[in-house]
Amino acid sequence: MARWLDALPYSNLEECGRQLLDGLRLLGHTPMDASARHKLLKLYLGALDRYFPALETEILQDDVASSARSRQLAMVAVALFASVFSTFKQTLAERLSKRSLLDREQPKIELLLYSMMSARQLANLSMRCYCPLPQGFWHDCHQLFRPAVERGWHERQLDNDDSLRVIYQQILLLGITSTNSLSQQEMTVARQLIMDWAVHAQLQPVETLDTTRLGYLVDTSRDEPPRFLPINASQLGAGCYWFNLEGALALVKRRIEQLLTAQNSNAAAQLYDELALLRGLAEEWQQPKRLRHQRMSMREVLELTATVPNIWYLANGHSWITAAEGNNKEEGDEPPPAPVALRTPPPPSLFLVVNQSAQGLRLRGQPRGQLLRAGEVILLSPPGKPAASQLCLIRWVSLLPDGMEVECGVEVIGKLPEPVRILPTITHPEDQYQYALCLQAISPLHRPPMLLTQGRQFSRLRELRLQDRNGEILIRCTRLDTQTPHVQLMEYRDSDNF
Question: In terms of Cα–Cα distance, which of 56, 94, 96, 57 is closest to 78?
């Protein structure tokens, strides 16, 4: 087995993954002694340690949801670790079923810890890849924790890793965090915070509660993550816990206070990003978001175009040349400095509207070249009706189990935008105009004109040159309305009004 694992084609990610998965499944189905299966599983862990870094790099070098190859490799990775988890559970069950005076506890504890650690890796990987967890995952995790508590093994650990209780709490925290609404950058930070702060949470048996608590309930008899509801011990059976997050929330709030202090002396965008992430975690861990609007089922097909430059090109009549540049060329004038020339964008992708609410849509389809990621801006257009387009922000992304299609939830922020170009008045001589989108004012909603930009253009009262179809004006940014890792939506006013 060791020689076969060493000879696997590790540079061929698809083939190596297929062979590892076939081997793991065969290991689970081949009758053998539990101790022998345990030893072979540890050999597979060594092979996965060698294979997985390259696989993870390949999956995450592009946005997972946007690349067909990344999606398929993500499915391979999730299937691999689901098989590792399943085989460790099987081996543990076989070992626990043996009752002998000579049978030692340590191999059972080790198997239990490996099972929970592989569950954590599976949860982490599913989070990073926006993949759904396998059916039965939560029930299996709960059923691993119950015998650990009954046998007094829940504080045991392997080497320098966390105890079984802490690993379980890390998995539970992942389960109550809406990771599919996070970008990869946000997810890296959130994952580290969860791994570090889960130790400060507590699992309190509900029978020890003397009053009804509003909080997260862990019911080890159900196949589901913690649920937020009123916890009444008299209505619950054995194996139920209040997942008390007060200790972890105290650390979140302390970190928020530190960032607010730092922000007063440093307006760095990364401080704003981390602050927004922490506030989101604090809100979700205290009380999860509820659907605020009724959703209506639909079956409409829309064209989807993603990113500011691609939407700019579409809104500008499928051209990178503005009307002002065209007029200047005809008159022989020197055109204004344009942004770096870009390639023709990919054609729009077709997405099905699954349902609709007052604020947004749920979509399903294949990106086919469009950059589909949480926090990105997209334009949705009925085929042949560009004037009916809607500008949206992607709020969450999720891969369907087959890895072929993607679902996403989007929030509508405006209608067909006007393509404009911006450049700070105080800048480097080499800087060029950047593509941006202008959303018209909505008087009934008291919404002023808004500017949508890539990256980090906003600074309060910063002056920008804005080129639109009528020429060039000077504006000042007045308020940041929305910021994601990819775009900023800000209010602005003419500089003459200051």
Answer: 56
